[in-house]
Amino acid sequence: MYVEHRSRLAPLVVWTRTVETAGRGRVLPDGCMDLIWTGDELIVTGPDTVAHEASTDRPGTRYTAVRCAPGVGPDLFGLPADALRDRRVPLADVWGAYRARLCTERIAAAADPAALLERLAADRLRDRDPDTARFTRAVVGELRAGAGIATVAAGLNLSERQLHRRSLTAFGYGPKTLARVLRLERALDLARAGFPAARVAADAGYADQAHFSRDVKALTGVPLRTLLT
Question: Is the model's pTM score more than 0.90?
């Protein structure tokens, strides 16, 4: 069972998942970065460029995590997002063994691991650079609205090369890839709501239904019908 809620403390989503049956799951790219408590250790997940397949072999295992909105992860972890792209690493590899051990001990002893994890993350984000925050909000907002890369760059008084470089640091990949990921997220929301594929493709900004189908397969590794079953 999976449950999530938006944090009131920071641009985070707090989520928990309890494994009910062993098997494999598919984590789709969403531009986000997570800090996950597995019950034994804290791990960091970077932004994915393609779907990540995860296996679970212990029914009853409970995962607790905070998910950073696109562009927020570097401020939490202290690393550029592209350094963690498509990676899953122990928190010790990011924050160092001593700090990671202290956090692990606190989480392990907490009556409410989710609440403690949320507070720890929010404390790290309290002094987030406002210019960086404005940049990431602007890029994500414009791309979600369907703006082209040149338009986004011009609106920020940046060259397209500068936008690309700053996007790698903030999001883990360039604005073109981020736009594809955000468009896919929008399209899948529409598809899961029951809209036909042709309507989804048009509303989400694809050239046509075939373009939508190709992008789904490229980013998730499976056809649309597999994701929806």
Answer: yes
Handedness of CA 104, 112, 121, 74 (dihedral sign): positive
Report the alpha-carbon distance of residue 214 to residue 182 in Å, rounded. 15
DSSP sequence for 40-80:
S-EEEE---SS-EEEEE--TT-EEEEEEEPTTTHHHHHSS-
Backbone angles phi, psi at 95, to 5 degrees: -100, -5
What length is written for the chain?
229
CATH of domain 130-228: 1.10.10.60
Residue ranges per structural domain of the chain: 2-125, 130-228
Tokens for 14? 């707090």
Is it the case that residue 57 has pLDDT exceeding 80? no
Task: Map residue 14 onto helix, strand or coil.
Answer: strand
| Mean pLDDT of the residues in the chain | 95
Mean pLDDT for the stretch of residues 13-37: 91
User: Which two three-digit tokens encode residue 123?
Assistant: 């404390």
CA–CA distance, 165 with 159 (Å, rounded to integer)? 10
Which structure tokens are listed for 193? 């709501």
In whole angstroms, what is the distance from residue 222 CA to residue 201 CA?
Answer: 17
